[in-house]
Amino acid sequence: MKPCQALVYVTSIVRDSGTSFYWAMRLLPVQKRNAIFAVYAFCREVDDIADNPGSESDKLRQLADWRLEIERLFSGKPQLPISVALINPIKQFNLCKKSFLAVIEGVETDALKSVRMPTFLALENYCDHVACAVGRLSNQIFGVEKALGEPVAAALGQALQLTNILRDIYEDADIDRLYVPMDMLSEHNIPSVDARLAIAHPSFPRVCDELATIARILYQDAEQALGQCDRKTMLPAIMMMQNYRLIFDKLVKRGWTNLNKPVSLNKAQKLWL
User: How far apart are CA 96 and CA 158, in angstroms?
Assistant: First the structure.
């Protein structure tokens, strides 16, 4: 596949995802936008491997194949359309191979038949792989200095992923995924063997409150870090933060006893963004 065809392919992936990410990134100049779309398509591809039906062994095999593809990509010999779309961005923005491999490593956790986070440190490490690593790639594309961009990637990536975890608790528990750390559950005498029983425990809302407090501090840290950057350069990141922060605020307002009640932005909030 030619690079121009690969670009059309990855753009369709981002557009068809139906997320606010597509509209936020359309603000970027064309080269940066194409690069971000290619990175997003890669993330979406490996994430879908973990989330789609299939055996644990098959999912891990497909992710191992992607590890090999990243090696081929950085050797200048990609075989897959998304990788072809990444050739120019890697050259133009000096994208780091380590960050791509980190995303795959994080998603390998999601591919397991049963997901548990033994400690909060393990959760932080997971968030760093699946979210902060993407932020570091984005910073390279945005063109922000590493000293200024790294605090943004660290705080915002953690905040966004914690918001995802708090939003998806009910759905995740239904497929035996429990990202709330076991050490936090243990402090409230909540057993974690059965994910659905854990989230139904009377003390579980208190653990969610603790995670929400951490997420709120991270949003504050991200906002402060973004304040040190050029606003125009980081506008897409600012928009993503505002989008997720609205969802986070709605989650907190809903509370943690009706976890099956979905939370989303209304038309007025989307229009404001």
Answer: 20
